[in-house]
Write the structure tokens for this entry.
Amino acid sequence: MLTSLKNSKRAMGLGIAFIAAVVLVPAMASFQSINAIVNTHYVVIKTPIEGALHDFSKMPGQPIKQGEELVRISNPRFKESAVNEMEVEQKTLAKRSLGLQQHLKNLQQLQKELDNRVSVHRTHEFLRLEEQLAQAQAEKKAQESLIREQQVLAQRNTLLLKENFISSAQNEAAQYALEVTRSRLEIYQARIRLLETEKQAVKQFVYLGEGRNDVPYTQQRLDDVRLQITDVAARLRENEQRSSDVQLQIRKERDNMAASREVLIHSPSNGVLWRKFGGNGTEVVIGTDLAHVITCDNVFLDVAVPESSLESFEIGKPVQYRLIGSAKWLLGHIQAVTGSGNNLQDVTLVAQLQREKKDARIFVKIQSSDLGKPEENLCFAGRKVDVKVPREWRPSVWFSRISSFLM
């Protein structure tokens, strides 16, 4: 009886030792945590215009494809007052352009008429001067012939005076007549020079003479018309440029109105509709949140770990994990590590990990394809997971901890 009792105690001891070995040895070989979840970020979709929601039939939790239409927003109360004002201005500018074009046409016609009149006046003036110049030159030749005749007569009278065939008075009269003829020749020469000067001036469109302006009245009118044509042409170009600018503004405003009157919002990526704000008929203003969309391509593990073990969690280190309720272990890699004092606030996270104040935090990169149909399971966001990380035994660390207690 005593031997049987001893054997039973020995068997129980061995069983307890075996159970302790099964439980403790894996725990000593690796760190294991069940305070971990699958997490990801969501994308906020906001309304770009104000209006009412239509065709907002997708429900939260349903998978969506990139480019798929989520909601239509229409604003039937959009006013076109700005466009109407610009169109009125455009019509006014068009009428002003027609008026300026007609005015410019009339001025150009008047310019042609004045050009013709100036040409006729200049031709007539040129012919008149040519005639007067020819007449003066003919009179000059006549005076030159008369001077030569009187010079011969004066020379003969001088010889006759020496022979006493004529009196001194007769000789003096001949000399006086010669001087008068020479004076008249100088007058004709001066007249010829004056006429040639006027002729050259007419060639340059300048008219000289006593009691005259430098240019005729028609030429003055022509100069004034040319200035008016320049001014009207400049005003017409400015008006047409303004009309072109207004037309461009009208087109841009109409494009803006079309974009502000109705907007179709599509899904930015493949994923799941996580949250939905409002339904068909809901009135929204600019910047209102319409929906939150999550994508399964960037899922990761959010894991709480003791801060005393942070040295074991190096970036890139492999991590084993499995969804709670699943027997299949999957592989990930540590992507980031934060301490317990880091008050990391990320409002775009889909789920929030509940952890103690002294818990540190690691983020593990995983492949969504390993999870199997993540879109049909809300990307497994918020799902609890079991995580195992291989331990690295560091005697120096354990010795420093023991020595700190002893000291």
